[in-house]
């Protein structure tokens, strides 16, 4: 890093997250009133969770990426399944909506970038529906990474507050784990972490990425044996990474993409069957972790990246702080859980919140649901 390690204002021994962590840290420290981040796996929402601010990832394509550099040679990225999107970051939901409204007023976003759909911002959905009760779904665990006690409590307390305010809330049961694995398979398909290496343009790889780099470069013939060994020793998630985070043929890549689309179709069907307006869930598996631990806990971002792969808008609202009795992490017995246990030590008083999600292109409704959560929780 050019300016050294970016520190979390709530505890300088902990990370502010990334890749929009500097923005989140400034906002949390009240060094800036508004910010802009980009999100392809949770880079707006993760830092917002860690720093206790609000952050919004719009539907991909709703906000122009014109003028935003791509960390790849020639400023061009060939990966087109999981799409990065810019979005606002702030200390309250109203400020997020102000940014989105200003960007889209009078169709100016489309006028300045013809790639963006010619959509105006529907203020009525955000404002005039203030008295309309919504129907929320919720879940506390995605099946891929066991959420910590504070994350579960944040969701349950939000659910109770929504019910008390007259909103309908139902549990959303779905196989989110398979969506998370689809993200892993598709985002590692080039093999060898090559896209990332290309973006460095000859610079030395930061040591924090060595685990991911080594996993991505395991010889193909060794993968089945190593994955089986990890499974037999109880490291099934590591075994899954060894097995699935690998180079793929064009046909295999197409097949995995087709599988993901079927999963997305099933999720939308379930959503519509339950007649949901929005979903509340954890924004991450753990609170802000100590510096240097992100490579060991990348899987904790599953709660954000599962929405990137289906292109749903999503945002984070802070709702509580980690309690002293929530520092102890409980999960399946493997090295990932061991890292989460270490990260949980002395995490009391770190921010925790919830994530609010809606169907694609319902960005105004997503922010409205976030505002409702902010109002009923009153944190």
If strands are numbered along the chain, what order do they take across the biggest sheet? Answer: 3-5-4-9-10-8-6-7
The count of β-strands is 10
Can you count the helices?
A: 15
Overall helicity: 40-55%
- General form: globular
- Give the SSE order as H and E letters: EEHEHEEHHHEHEHHHHHHEHEHEH
* β-sheet strand percentage: 5-15%
Structural Rg: 20 Å
- Judged by helices, strands and strand pairing, the structural class is alpha+beta
Q: Any low-confidence stretches, pLDDT <50, length ≥5?
A: none
Describe the protein.
The protein is α+β, with helices and mostly antiparallel strands and 379 residues long. The protein is 41% helix and 13% strand. The chain has 15 helices and 10 strands. The chain has an 8-stranded mixed sheet with strand order 3-5-4-9-10-8-6-7, sandwiched between helices. A two-stranded antiparallel ribbon has the order 1-2. α6 (149-164) packs across α15. The model has no long low-confidence stretch (mean pLDDT 94).
Provide a short characterization of the protein structure:
The protein is of the alpha+beta class and 379 residues long. It has helices spanning 21-28, 45-51, 93-104, 108-112, 123-127, 149-164, 176-187, 194-200, 210-216, 223-232, 236-244, 250-273, 302-308, 335-344, 363-377, and strands at 7-8, 11-15, 34-39, 54-57, 85-90, 135-138, 168-171, 278-281, 314-321, 351-357. 41% of the residues lie in helices and 13% in strands.
